[in-house]
User: What shape does this take?
Amino acid sequence: MKQKFVKKSILPGFSLSLGFTVFYLSLFVLIPLSMIFLRTSSLSFKEFLDVIMAERTLAAYRLSFGTAFASACINAVFGLIVAWVLVRYSFPGKRIVDAMVDFPLALPTAVAGIALTELYVPNGLLGKFLQAWGIKGAFTPFGITIALTFIGLPFVVRTLQPVLEDVDPQIEEAAASLGANRWQTVTMVIFPVIIPALLTGVTLAFARAIGEYGSVIFIAGNMPMKTEIAPLLIMTKLEQYDYTGATAIAVGMLLISFILLGAANFFQWLTSRNLGRT
Amino acid sequence: MQVRTEPRIVRYVLITIALVFFGLFLVLPLVCVFQNALSKGWVVYFDALRHPDALAAMKMTMITALIVVPCNLIFGVAAAWAVSKFDFKGKNLLLSFIDLPLSVSPVIAGLIFILLFGAQGVLGPWLIAHNIRIVFAWPGIILATIFVTVPMVARELIPIMKSQGTEEEEAALTLGASGWKTFWMVSIPNIRWGILYGVILCNARAMGEFGAVSVVSGHIRGLTNTMPLHVEILYNEYQSAAAFAVASILAMLAIVTLIAKSIVEANIRQGQK
Assistant: This one.
């Protein structure tokens, strides 16, 4: 039997709502975004590679991916601890801490950028401490990593929290009654269930960090080859009216973002399988 | 219960680590904004806010949010209605298209509108011939902000509408209510908290967007500056106290957003029980 495009329903408004949705998305998202690929297709493959493989571009990619990865790792550890503490323990001020986890998403990135810079410059509140240890905070890859850690934290905590809440208490009790000590229960029973969720969160944080601009440019220092992130290089190319160069760099970043997004979806699928809902 | 928790010492250590991390990364930057804003006293603070450029930037930010949020609200409701009340082919593809802007760097979000409407862009020559300015003017700011915030309302509404199913609407329709009446009297009241939640998040993002707007605005003072761009200009001119004064308004907006969000979340949770 031939399958219909839409299942029959007595509810009205299908064509109106779907039509409007597709129209709006095409107008404001899909057509503008397709410009990137239209522009790139006017380049020969060699010209594309020349932009992508230029030393300055490679340095920017390396810096963006390296610092994004470092910040994702930091968030994997501390995001897990924060989520664990918020779900499992009670302590004074817990509700405020819980609400403030979303702060990096609510705070405009430029504000986060100048605030973090001011904290980590050599005579800033935290910069002074780092200086005493001989570490430079602001205007180094370390500073960029700090800004990206700030941005990425909510992604890890918010993906982990519901999954931690959903872990079946019975499996923990079963493990304990079968003689497992607490450490064994946590590492061998709970972690395997939540690790896909942790990976989802970390991948989302990583993807966001690669494209992040506002919170980074103030603390980065923006020295070509040293502390120039990929989004900033796009900006620089645009200011020189090198639209093609800017687009080529953007295509490289977009492709990697989409691959990461696919990975995050895969981990999410694993999570729901582990929790027994398919 | 005993078997489901860790020894007290482990609990305290973990709570301490979480709170120290939380303080260093979330609380200190917030405190830093207000401390720097007031570092030169209240007079400098209010002068920075009353400056004509600052007022123009606030106006631009408000106008942007007033146009962008209603647009994305209508889109969000329409998209959520189509996706959660009907089964059709290609639904998953549509869902990933809705989320697409979240995985695009803000700078790229600005870049695409330059490629479309800029002087070298696809529509550039036609726009110049007709003397219409889109990029480096306010329409560009609005388009870039819409792109960045498209998913905000839809993402909040889709799960809520899905979990509610279609029974109530079907009941209303069987009892003879018209389609629009059902929509306004049954569906909308059921998702009112979700709508509020989405609008709050969308508004916060629309007012605070920096990267995308920075690419398309042209940074013309008093004309195409939004509040985040104004903060950047002041900071780069070493007017730190003034920059943080304007930033403190945006930080307060973020705090209000978080408070509103927790209230709405509590209401949604209660509604589900």
The mean pLDDT of chain B is 89. The two ends of chain B are 24 Å apart (CA to CA). The CA atoms of residues 116 and 122 of chain B lie 5 Å apart.
